[in-house]
Structure formats: structure tokens, C-alpha cells
Amino acid sequence: MPLTFAAGRALAPTLTEDDRVLLALVNTAQSVRVTVEVDRQPLPSLVPLRGGRWSVYPAYGEGGAIVSASGAGVAEVQWPQTWTPLEAAAREHGLTV
Hints:
alpha+beta
């Protein structure tokens, strides 16, 4: 599904009605994570971009932005600025940009 980004952010659908029905049947406390990818602009697999407790970035992985699905069925996706992967690559090697 095409997304429209404004200032690096977009609202992405995360759950279909079928997803909601299935999750209600499973009755799990686990959260659902969705990877949003942009065609022809995959993000590099860099440790600093994977998020986590000490990360200065939102979570990115598998070539895209990782967001948690909400009960509303949409989540805000923040796509990194062009320099962010460069900065993350430098951090991964103990350097700063």
C-alpha cells in the first residue's frame, strides 16, 4: 500500500480486520510488530538502527522501519533522514559524524 510521507513521517495501516479477529482468538499479551519498507530505498542492517533501550533512533531493521501495531490499526512511521544511516554506520565503528 502506498504511503504519503510528510516531514519524514506517515501513517501506516498495521492491522486488517482479519488480523484483529485472529489476535482476539489467540488472546495473547504479545505485541505485533510491522516492518514498513520503502521501494528501492531499503535501510542498511546496522546495529545502532535496530532500536533498543539505549538507541537514539527509532527501530529499523530488515530494510525498513519497525512499528508496533495498535488497536486503531494504524501507526506512525518515521523514516530516517538521509544522514541517519551514515551516522549509524559511523557509530557502529566507534566514530562520530
